[in-house]
Amino acid sequence: HPVDVSPPLSPLAGSCLELSLLLLLALELPSSGGCPTDCVCYPSPMTVSCQSHNFLAIPEGIPEDSERVFLQNNQISLLLRGHFSPSLVTLWLYSNNVTFVDPNAFRGFSHLEELDLGDNPNLQELSAKTFQGLSRLHALHLYKCGLSSLPSGIFSGLHNLQYLYLQDNRLANPRLATTGQLLCSLRNPAELRERGSRIYPTLPGLQKKESPPPSPLSGPDQLSRYDPCIAMGRTR
């Protein structure tokens, strides 16, 4: 039998090899450090996945640098200020039992781009301040909630909002002026896609994105047909 004459590894070399293996494992496996119990966390970008665990409240220990948090299909009832970090970009809370959203729950969330609160049938009202300051928000999901009305100005400042889902609520058919109060703060109302809701059945100015822009018009009466803000005597 051949004799192995290779020198044994020094303690330092062995430690370096062990450290390298640990680093490789850390890159391959989901992050567990600083992650809420029963959740899975992934880095780059920091993602926290806590769906379908019957949580009754927002789990503790969500990393402050989290950019994506998935909490759908639980039993969460309250959303309060401090539950999440302003670093959030995507937040999914659909199919829970949300009954109350603190008006300041999302204050300072200037990076938030998608917020899904849909399928929370006991969410019956929202404050006009709920979405203030969410300047980057482009998708807002409020479908299948228990909303019977929306306060004036609730969408104020949502200049990048492109997708608004309000179907399957208990919203009545308001007059055009009331509808205009909800939408006149949007910078690009023609890009807003509202699918299936009864609240904006024939609202002027909400052409599909692929539709060509209307030809230039003259006169306030003609312009008001395409801009609810002008119809109300307001400017953006």
From TrEMBL:
Residues 202-236 are annotated as: Disordered. The keyword Signal applies. It comes from the Eukaryota. SMART domains: LRR_TYP (SM00369). InterPro entries: Leu-rich_rpt (IPR001611), Leu-rich_rpt_typical-subtyp (IPR003591), LRR_dom_sf (IPR032675), LRR_TM_domain-containing (IPR050541). Keywords: Glycoprotein, Leucine-rich repeat, Repeat, Signal. GO terms for biological process: negative regulation of axon regeneration. Pfam families: LRR_8 (PF13855). One of its GO terms (cellular component) is cell surface. This is Reticulon 4 receptor like 1. It comes from Podarcis muralis. The lineage of its organism: Eukaryota, Metazoa, Chordata, Craniata, Vertebrata. The gene is RTN4RL1.
